[in-house]
Specification:
228 residues, mainly beta, FomD barrel-like fold, 7-stranded mixed beta barrel, 3 helices, 12 strands
Length: 228
Amino acid sequence: MRFSPQQTIIRRYLLRDGRISSGYVARVVSDDERGLLTWVDSGHATVQRVTADGGPPKLLSCNEKVFEPTTLTPMVWRSTGTLMFSPDDAAHSVWWFFDENREFTRWYVNLETPGRRWAGGRDCVDQSLDIWIDPGGNWEWKDEAEFVDYTGRPGYWDAEEAARIRAEGMAVVERAQAGVFPFDGTWCDFTPDPTWQVAKLPWWWDQTPDQSSAVPPLIEGATGAPMK
């Protein structure tokens, strides 16, 4: 399954028990043999889990997360515009972060399970460990303590799986330091079509893949400036 350019989809991260953890409404830039490239701009709709008091579950300990009730809540993307690229069958995605002037600042590598596509978007499971990479190839792990804390716990990854996740991250770092695709300047000068509207939360955001026959392809007729 391939998505059409300008189509609105939702990129969902699932908990390991199958529940939705978060979702980002995104505009499809391209979808080809390299993978799926989407754009999430400031103000785009998201859904995020919050605790009973409205706080982010990320601040809870692993033990607290087992028992603390959480609820999915509509929010908006408060960061600047971000490209999200998911290579086909890869256990990671690469995000391009831009500043308020649309200048590229750095890459973010999200380590995750290979994605599953459905009519409304793409699903995967986050693996906690992430990487920041600057344009010069300097890099650092993100959320390493959380990743270590989850390792070996029931329902998460064991030591062997953790080693594979780290190896995936290091392979991406090596490509970045070598300056090969997608770290060769590709999309660093990306400019979104100025006619694109803020992407709202579609009614089917929480559909399961077996319900997705009812999901329409949302495509806005954006024919303005070409995309780089």
